[in-house]
Amino acid sequence: MPQQKDIVKIAIQMPGAYPQLIQLDQKKPLSAVIKEVCDCWNLPGPENYALQYADGVQMYITESNRLDIKNGCILRLTKAPGRCAEDLYKGIQSSDAGVRCDSLKELASVSTDVTFAQEFISRDGHLLLVKIVEDCNESNVIMTHTLTGFMELMDHGIVSWENLSSVFIKKIASFVNAKPTDVSIQQVSLDILMSMVLSSSNLFLQVKLEVTMERLIAHLQVTNQQIQTKAMALLMALLQTAADSDRQDMFAFLNKKNLRQYIYKNIIHSSGSVQDEMAHYLYVLQSLTLNHLEPRMRTPLDCYSQEQRDILHGLRQAAFETESDNSLSHERRRSLCAKEFKKLGFSNNSNPGQDLVRTPPGLLALDTMYYFAARYPDAYSRFVLENSSREDKHECPFARSSIQLTLILCEILRIGEPPSETRSDYHPIFFSQDRLMEELFCVCIQLLNKTWKEMRATQEDFDKVMQVVREQITRTLSSKPTSLELFKNKVNALNYSEILKLRQTERLHQEETLAPPVLELKERLKPELLELIRQQRLNRLCQGTMFKKISSRRRQDKLWYCRLSPNHKMLHYGDVDEDLENPPIETLQEKIPVADIKGLLTGKDCPHMKENKGKQNKEALDLAFSITYDVEEYSLNFIAPSRTDFCLWTDGLNVLLGREMSSESMRGELEILLSMEIKLRLLDLENVSIPDSAPVVPKPPSNYNFCYDFSQTEQ
Predict the structure, then answer these.
(1) For 595-625, what is the HEC assignment?
(2) Which residues contact 77 (CB under 8 A, 6 or more apart)?
(3) Of 8, 237, 265, 444, whose CB has the highest number of CB atoms within 10 Å?
């Protein structure tokens, strides 16, 4: 008795007969099932029949795929694949052109099934098709069916493409090269040639020899989108398969023919939308073209190369050097160069080439900087001089930013990655712009400087700024700008405040899509995590911070230190020497009881900002805070060293006063902690043993030669 799971309820059709509803026993041999079906319809010779899906892909049912049959499937009783193959083999050789045409048409349809293909190829049916093509005595309709059937048979990989004769290859190539050829024949011929190219290097050389690049470009200029797509596919196959030297020659030829500009004008811009298959090949062309930058990206700067050293000094001279510098002594000139390289934003100002040793971006970063300085000298000078003249720690380092920006652009444009077989996210701007990498860099380095100022960033915020710039670039490119000017306008409109708004909107949308239990968990976790942040703020106040006193003449005067007592009851402060980084609490002579603090003021509401109204810059306003104590007649005034310190102190003082923390730093940390905690809580930890104590820290290595020393000494 068969088990219930081995029984499948299906319907079987046959033209001119009522369908049979049967319970298919998957344990019973398929031949026995077919015999029962034939007996029901009184059909002799069950070995001449087979079952086939009636809907969708009409594939033959075999012992190897029968388990894919589901309840409710509709099958059809049809000729067995061996019998069908024999009949078509004979029909193709008929003296009647009509019979040949019908047989080849049916062959093109049924050859998609691998079971039939094996039967037909075992009779050398594919060689019969090859002979029809080589003789080339048939009509265009018959030739189209022949080529289609041949392509379907070869797609199964039963027969190697290597076995094809040179006569056959030349004949297929002639269909592509000939101008008045039937469109359907050209489509299938282009498909066949592409498969040949991708199958072996020998066939690649033969196809490259027979099919001219001129002709492929001509096919891209026709109005038939299928021909355009097939020609583009063959062109990309040739480029991908070619050796590096051949590929460079092919690119040179395509650039000479203005292929990218033509694609932009006649395929991208005129049609408005590009089909998925064509979009993939446009992506491949973009990827292969940009990958010619990979050698520069993978090559570090050679400090002994005079040419590369000259380019580095050319960057410095374009921004700083005057004629009188040439009269300086060697030592004085060397010292001046080091200072100017530091102003230019190099970390290793005595040997700036060391900044370009890291790969990627390697020499490509030097190329982009030099291109910007040479192509847009005014913008380059403005960037460098504007930041090198600043003394408020808000200078944007040109060289360091350029190196990181080049790396970001390499990652966004996927330079160095082989083309994916599934991606189709090409950038229309690539086809409208020569030297896309360099021109994007020139726009984005100026964007970076603009964003740096909007964020009022310091060197500590470098990574944060680069994250924002990456987001600005990726969001803008995702909108598919079709020209560099359009990209420039869009990316500059997407300023830092807009990025914050978009992040907030997306965060809210993400929260709305969370399941109610997750939202409930989030609310339950908030008090615990807020308490964690409060304790961190108080601990930070207990460690203390060094503050600067600024005189009315805006000249640096003295340093003073302020810290909270361990019992959180006193604020201790006092003047300190510059070389004393963390003075003991006993050395701070002044103190204010926390209980006497009445209020916390920030920005323009602070007494020391009101007293110097009109003399304080925006930075000082953003970093100023004061505490009032006793009867609000006295105040202790602060100007934080950085925005981070401002957030830490104002949060900590609000905690001491029993108020809610309100800084942007607190909100960001809370989001990070919530996200991490929720992910940890939702982890599937069943059968996973969690140790009670932390794992033992391994012993340090015997040496640290694998580490890179980032510390640099100015000379």
Answers:
(1) HHEEEEEEHHHCHHHHHCCCCCCHHHHHHEE
(2) 12, 13, 14, 34, 37, 38, 41, 43, 49, 50, 51, 52
(3) 444
Q: Are both 315 and 446 inside the same structural domain? A: yes
Residue 657 lies in a domain: yes
Identify whether residues 494 and 563 lie together within a single domain.
Answer: no
Query: Do 162 and 199 meet the contact criterion of CB atoms below 8 Å apart?
Result: yes
Chain Cα centroid distance, residue 368: 20
CB atoms within 10 A of CB 52: 22
- Is residue 573 domain-shared with residue 441, that is, in the same domain? no
What is the value of pTM for the model shown? 0.72
Cα separation values, 323 from 329, 410, 696, Å = 14, 37, 63
Calpha distance 103→128 (Å, rounded) = 13
Q: Is residue 234 situated within a structural domain?
A: yes
- Can you give the pLDDT at residue 327? 65
The CA-based angle 680-684-687, given to 5 degrees, is 120
CA-wise closest residue to 648 among 661, 632, 636 = 661
CA trace torsion 124, 125, 126, 129 (10° rounding): 130
Quick one: which of 75, 20, 78 has its CA closest to 49? 78
Q: Are strands 624-629 and 634-639 parallel, antiparallel or unpaired?
A: antiparallel
Decide if 99 is inside a domain. yes
CATH number for the domain harbouring residue 201: 1.25.10.10
| pLDDT tens digits, one per residue of 496-505 | 999 999 988 8
Q: In the listed set 79, 98, 132, which residue is the last one of a domain according to the structure?
A: 79
Give the pLDDT confidence of 336-375 residue by residue, as tens digits.
888 899 999 999 988 999 999 999 999 999 999 999 999 9
Are residues 272 and 208 located together in one domain of the fold?
yes
Number of domains forming the structure of the chain: 4
248, 235, 294: which is closest to 417 by C-alpha?
Answer: 294
CA–CA distance, 107 with 150 (Å, rounded to integer): 9
CATH code: domain of residue 49: 3.10.20.90
Whether the Cβ atoms of residue 588 and residue 573 lie closer than 8 Å to each other: yes
Instruction: Kindly give the parts of the chain with pLDDT less than 50.
Output: 1, 323-324, 712-715
Q: Answer yes or no: are the C-beta atoms of 603 and 624 closer than 8 Å.
A: yes
The residue range of the domain holding 578 is 526-667
Tell me how far apart the alpha carbons of residues 174 and 195 are, in angstroms, rounded to a whole number: 16
Question: Do residues 587 and 598 touch, judged by C-beta distance below 8 A?
Answer: no
21 and 103: one domain? no
Can you read off the two tokens belonging to residue 187?
């489509």
Residue 636: DSSP 8-state: E
Tell me, what amino acid is at 371?
Y
